[in-house]
Amino acid sequence: MTGALLVVTEVSRRFGGVRAVDGASFTVQPGSITALIGPNGAGKTTLFNIVSGFLRADAGAVTFGGRRLERLPAHRVARAGLVRTFQAPRILTRMSVLENLMLGSLDQPGEHLGRAWLHGPTSSREREVRAEAMATLELLRLTPLVHAYAGTLSGGQRKLLELGRALMATPRLLLLDEPLAGVAPALAAQLLDHITTLRRDRGMTFLIIEHDMESVMSICDWVVAMDRGQVLAAGTPAEIQANESVIESYLGRVQSDDGAPHAPRQSEDR
Amino acid sequence: MMHLLNPQFWTFVGVVAGIYGLLALALYVQFSMAGLPNFGHVAFMAVAAYTMALLVIRAHVALGWASLAGIAAAVALGFVLGIPSLRLRANYLAIVTVAGSEMIRYLATNLSVTGGPVGSMGMLGPTQFATYTTSWQPFINGVTATLSRWVGGVATNDFSMLCLVWTLLALLLLLFRRLEKSPWGRVMKSIREDEEAAASLGKNVYAFKLQALTLGGILAGVAGILWALEIGVFAPDDFQPTLTFYAYLILILGGMNRVWAIPAGAVLFGALYSGTRFLNFYPLSLVDSGDRAYLRLLIVGVVLVLLMAVRPEGLFGKRQELLLEK
User: Fold this and answer.
1) Which residues of B touch chain A, with CB atoms under 8 Å apart?
2) % of chain A surpassing 70 pLDDT
3) B68 vs chain A: nearest CA distance in angstroms?
4) How far is CA A229 from CA A23, A42, A43, A47, A59, in A?
5) How confident is the model at residue B245 (pLDDT cuts 50, 70, 90)?
């Protein structure tokens, strides 16, 4: 497909005798919200780790905005504009919420040791980064927690904080690993809202691993279904929900009144 | 028996506390900021001191240049131990540094070029007395002469050293305080908390760890040189692994993750460790002095345990940080 932002081609990765990812290929179109679904052990997170540079693929290519990424270390992938979150949020517990967010900004000359002493808390760039962080907190409605240790946050708040921190890096593509897992329904709705708003207002692209099918089908415009390390099918939510092999391996068959197969809501089955 | 209020003794204690403070600052950069558990810290001091002394004694290099070379050697040791282990989990650095520091002490004890168990005195062989302080003595005498114009008889060479060490420590604390508050310091702390998170936000974790290792090596090297100059002659046994743990003690006593805790921890540790030399009053005077030396260490241990029980966060630490999991 031409014009795709992310192209994953024939990526494979083994762990000992297990083929965690086995020749997976898919694309992510710019400005889309693409979901990666599949049963546990399908290789979704492994694929995420490969795309984000945290794991080397044994074979295959990852192209992002025309640039090959598969040999780059994680920090350079992030600098290229592809930022990820983690299944279990990796927040910095003994740092404040504000510090967590400020860390996210990529453009910080004061991170160089030789120039660090010039970039105290009152320097102009530091003020700008702090203002960006405050705006992000406002967006995520976490402002009252600005000076709290991140370690005191609830599970759902940690997910929001991690999302905010990733946003501070102004990614073109944001990879979210199970953003809704363990999040209370009200907060989950808020999170989904943020995702659609960010896509609309900032033109950001999302690739999301998620087990909550109702949410996936409601906000995504493209779904990639995986099983046993391979891509089973890719298509619009409607196509995927009607795909026989996806239903077989993952969604399960529930006969509804009109006789059409229908995806049941998946529970937290991790 | 020395009197409890003997000023010369306490001046020496102050110098030692200041040097330990430098060592603790080096550890602070590596452990508190970047999360690198270096358990062989003393080896960096030893390598700097040995390199300096060898260059002065055997190659007749000027003391200043020899000291710089000593510090460079400490940094090089950091690279030798760090480059293979930094990409692995933090635990491996701990293992490598413990092993590395003991290897260096045993090498120094068993090689003839380093003077063997005799140390710096034996660097020219058993027949000649070797010293590296020939050009240091006139310098420190000069400092003392200058200082005595202001403070009179209080100025001794130890007093000059006290001023030098604590001025240097104060300046370095200010510098590192500033660095810690900068974006650079923020990245360091994030690596301590979770290096994968830091990498996911575009931070080159490996490069930052190498920087922490280098800065720590420089500071420990400076501490090693000052220690060698203060004591005049040194032997491998002056670089026992316990020194590393004293530096950790200073960090813990003062409060982890607080740069101002270092001078406070250093003074507290110095007072506790040396102050217990004066436990010669009744009923402790009933015990003979040899046994009292062990009793002293026992008392230091008990006091430390009590301090940690009452104030686990140290003097300036924040208790909340102890309770938060990584």
Assistant:
1) 175, 178-179, 181-187, 189-190, 193-194, 196-205, 211, 257, 320-321, 324-326
2) 93
3) 20
4) 7, 5, 5, 9, 13
5) confident
**Does B324 sit within 8 Å of A93, measured CB to CB?**
yes
Query: CA distances (Å), A243 to each of A21, A42, A240, A250, A251, in order?
Result: 21, 17, 5, 11, 10
* All residues at 6 or more sequence positions from A43 whose CB lies less than 8 Å from its CB, including other chains: A13, A20, A21, A22, A24, A226, A228, A229, A230
pTM: 0.88
For residue B251, which amino acid is it? L
Query: Is the peptide bond between B37 and the residue preceding it cis, with omega within 30 degrees of 0?
Result: no
Q: Which residues of B touch A169 (CB under 8 A)?
A: 201-202
Region B130-158: mean pLDDT is 89
Asked if B183 and A120 come within 8 Å (Cβ–Cβ), the reply is no
Look at the block and give the residue holding tokens 């907190």. Answer: A137
Kind and range of the H or E element at B208?
Answer: helix B205-231
What pLDDT score was predicted for residue B54? 95
Give the strand pairing for A59-64 and A67-68.
antiparallel
Spell out where chain A has E strands: 6-15, 18-28, 33-37, 59-64, 67-68, 82-84, 173-177, 205-209, 222-227, 230-235
Minimum Cα–Cα distance from B174: chain A residue:
A117
Written as six digits, the tokens of B287 are 């015990």
Residue of B nearest to A105 (CA): B201
At B48, list the tokens: 């700097």
Neighbours of B117 (CB within 10 A): 12
